[in-house]
Amino acid sequence: MRFVIRLSALAVLFSALAAVTTWAQTTTEQPAKPDTNQSDKDASESEKYIRIERDKDGRKLALQTAIVRFEGQAETEHAGVVVDLVGVVHIGEKDYYRELNDLLGTYDSVLYELVAPDGTRIRPEDLKQRRSIVASMQTGMKDMLKLEYQLEQIDYMAENFRHADMSPEEFTEDLERRGDSVVKMMARMMGAGLATQAKTGGDLGVLMALFSQDRSTAMKNAMAKQLIDMEAVTAGMDDANGENTLIKGRNAKAFEVLKEELAKGNKKLAVFYGAGHLSDMAERLENDFQMRPTSTTWFNAWDLKGDQ
Predict the structure, then answer these.
(1) What own/partner pairs with CB < 8 Å and gap ≥ 24 does 280-285 have?
(2) This model's pTM is above 0.90
(3) Where in the chain are the domains?
(4) Which of 22, 65, 87, 233 could form a disulfide with 135 if both were Cys (CB 3.0 to 4.6 A apart)?
């Protein structure tokens, strides 16, 4: 039983690492709802881009991810430009990915994450044939929670999609430059994840969920907060010099591609990345591009109501 509970913490961790490992190791019911920015001001930093929506009585309704719109300011280089930071979780409801697919089709360019060789396009047939250990763990997690796998639901072959992430070689070189490694990084994240689970009582929640009549919904409720906490952990994994490869290094590469797309004259762009990346990306848009956030829209990734 203890193994099953600890496995849930590892599953959350592996979900956070999905875009890094899935490709590189193998070759590598509700509609969107607009929301005001006031809730963002009041939210903790870890829930600015991923949160749990509750009703007036405090009952959990959904795990949600944010889409934050940034607009170029008048009399700046990027006046008239719109860049949406589209946060995502790597396993979710089928309707969640359907709505994201519909939205992503409206942009001039969509920059997506995946540690893979430059220009990689994700084909569903490749994913079914090649699965890393981490991807297999994620698949088990999504089956347990009755959710879908992002890479199998999003249309990465769409014409407006562009790969905007490090290659495996770039990722390794950046780690080595800082004296870091994938093993060290995963160990830090695993320790932080287990510590977070212990602090939030995750063990008890998962244990109770195992005996629930609606097990998948109970498990989602138990793990949603852990997922939010892990996004915060991954976003804050700086070394002594304030650097990290997993978030800041990959974000820097994504924004090099963003500059290229802006130079082509594209006016409406999306950066489609895990929610843990968005805080650092927001700072880059404000500081380096003189863009300002103008609105936030929340999408329901997990239904937490079940049959209640």
Answers:
(1) 280/235, 280/247, 280/248, 280/251, 281/85, 281/251, 281/254, 281/255, 282/68, 282/70, 282/85, 284/251, 284/255, 285/70, 285/83, 285/85
(2) no
(3) 2-303
(4) 22
